[in-house]
UniProtKB/TrEMBL annotation:
Family: Belongs to the class-V pyridoxal-phosphate-dependent aminotransferase family.
Coiled-coil stretches noted in the UniProt entry, renumbered to this chain: none
A Pfam entry, by short name: Aminotran_5
Keyword Cell wall biogenesis/degradation: no
Annotated SUPFAM superfamilies: PLP-dependent transferases (SSF53383)
Cofactor(s) in the UniProt record: pyridoxal 5'-phosphate
Sorted UniProt keywords: Aminotransferase, Pyridoxal phosphate, Transferase
Any one GO biological process: glycine biosynthetic process, by transamination of glyoxylate
GO molecular function: alanine-glyoxylate transaminase activity; L-serine-pyruvate transaminase activity
Name of the molecule in the record: Alanine--glyoxylate aminotransferase
N6-(pyridoxal phosphate)lysine, modified sites: 198
Gene3D superfamilies per record: Aspartate Aminotransferase, domain 1, Type I PLP-dependent aspartate aminotransferase-like (Major domain)
Organism of derivation: Candidatus Nitrosoglobus terrae
Domain Aminotransferase class V stretches: 36-337
Amino acid sequence: MPITSFHPPVRILLGPGPSDVNPRILEALSRPTIGHLDPSFITMMDEMKILLQYAFQTRNDLTFAVSAPGSAGMETCFVNLLEPGDKVIVCQNGVFGGRMKENAERCGAIPIMVQDSWGDPVDPNKLEEALKSHPDTKVVAFVHAETSTGAQSDAKTLVELAHRYGCLTIVDTVTSLGGSPVKIDEWGVDAVYSGSQKCLSCTPGLSPVSFNERAVARIQARKTKAQSWFLDLGLVKSYWGGAGKRAYHHTAPINALYGLHEALVILQEEGIEESWARHQRNHQALRAGIEAMGLAFAVKKESRLPQLNAIIIPEGINDAVVRTQLLQKYGLEIGAGLGEMAGKIWRIGIMGYGSNLRNVLIFLSALETVLKELGANIELGVATRVAAEAA
């Protein structure tokens, strides 16, 4: 039989990403494709920079979207700021700190690991001990919002510590950007990367990044070429340069950038502080319902991400069975645990366009029904009622 057009099923995406895409963004993706050096496209790129500066709360001139997913944003930071033999302290409290270590090693750098339990934030005291023990460290890298656990670290304190010991910082905001406060200039972050598919509600495939003047100076002082040609900022920045002038580097994903532009316009229209507040309100409703079911969170209250909720799987309940039933019966996707959290938690994403009370109530109703059918001691209807009251 011939292969025909692919039509995906309709889902409600409540996992760790991607999140549900706003219909305005889907419409933007369908707009006519033009050349990547077309004057109109260059105007849009200039606007994209301004919109990303707003999202990151920065005035950094070198702010743009890498033409690849968040993992490429991570690699962009590492391959440009690290050279062979450099020491980098990597704070790990989940899966993505481990990926930072991999990036550092592939750059020929020497990673010094600061380990915290999965589900806990990065401990500033441990970081300071490592900085004292390794005074020749060049960079400190950490994940602000650890996607594998739903834990949020104190970025401001960690950056202040790194600077006190003469280090630059690389910060992962893939899950936090747009959903909880990210204040790049106020915190003094030197290099930051994120993703398009979480709280920005765009499709996957783009990675917003920003570099301050200290980071740019380090890049310009390199003694060796960046490991990656495609991600070499010495080349890429000429494509994303100012004053309407662009030098060809690669063919940008034109329609995908239309989508991110629209996502950022939507964020600007709502107001970033209101977006942060909306995510927090919906988290509070979800938390009320989850606790009414007798379930618990894996992360302490003061360190929880509002947009990514790690729920401890009740004893005697099969992780995969619940996720499969939610998907097949209700069209709901939630995330499994990763690494040492596998089989121990569910990751519930209430992100971006999908961060609304309707989705919270649909999810709670479906979850309590599935758990009841599997023999859990659940009183149907309580979770949704309590969540609605908390909203």
